[in-house]
């Protein structure tokens, strides 16, 4: 439960996904200086751990995709910020973009959310949201550099 709830941040009041995303930014700050190989290896390991811990938490609380489970937001946030420069503006933009796509759930995230269950379903819709946010963030950073 410690891992699934993002060090218990999923128990914080109001909008646990936002708290989990904030933890994701903090984890990114710790990992942002790594080379891409180790960064993506850790990200992949967190995804696998997330699938198992989210699935187990779902069974423990006897509820599908419980709000307290935020490991998916942490991984999604790490995907969003994976190519971002270690700068507060990039972190804030990535945080906001990920929350936007996580809440909006554009296809295929909405399909995954509705059709895949268990730990894999919990994790994958946030992976998709993270990929959308990553693309938009990188486009924004590229456009900003052109100005």
Topology:
Blueprint (H helix, E strand, L loop, with lengths): L15 H16 L4 H26 L9 H10 L7 H17 L4 H7 L2 H29 L1
Helix pairs in contact: 1-3, 1-4, 2-3, 2-6, 3-4, 3-6, 4-6, 5-6
Give your account of this protein's structure.
With 147 residues, this protein is an all-alpha fold. Helix content is 71%, strand content 0%. It has 6 helices and no strands. Helix 1 crosses helix 3. The model has no long low-confidence stretch (mean pLDDT 96).
In short:
Helices cover 71% and strands 0% of the residues. It is an all-alpha fold and 147 residues long.
Mean pLDDT: 96
What is the domain total for the residues?
A: 1
Shape: globular
Instruction: Summarize the biggest pleated sheet.
Output: none
Query: Strand share of the residues?
Result: under 5%
- Low-confidence blocks of residues: none
What gap, in angstroms, lies between the N and C termini? 46 Å
Q: How would you spell out the order of helices and strands?
A: HHHHHH
Radius of gyration, taken over Cα atoms and rounded to an integer in Å: 14 Å
Class inferred from helices and paired strands? mainly alpha
* Secondary structure tally: strands: 0
SS summary, helix count: 6
């Amino acid at each position: 439960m410690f891992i699934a709830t993002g060090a218990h941040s999923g128990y914080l009041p109001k909008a646990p996904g936002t708290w989990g995303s904030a933890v994701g930014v903090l984890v990114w700050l710790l990992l942002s200086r790594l080379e891409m190989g180790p960064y993506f290896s850790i990200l992949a390991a967190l995804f696998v751990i997330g699938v198992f811990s989210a699935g187990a938490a779902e069974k423990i609380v006897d509820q599908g995709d419980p709000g307290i489970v935020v490991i998916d937001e942490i991984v999604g946030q790490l995907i969003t910020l994976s190519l971002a420069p270690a700068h507060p503006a990039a972190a804030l933009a990535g945080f906001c973009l990920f929350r936007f796509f996580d809440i909006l759930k554009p296809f295929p995230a909405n399909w995954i959310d509705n059709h895949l269950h268990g730990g894999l379903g919990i994790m994958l819709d946030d992976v998709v949201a993270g990929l959308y946010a990553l693309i938009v963030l990188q486009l924004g950073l590229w456009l900003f550099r052109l100005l």
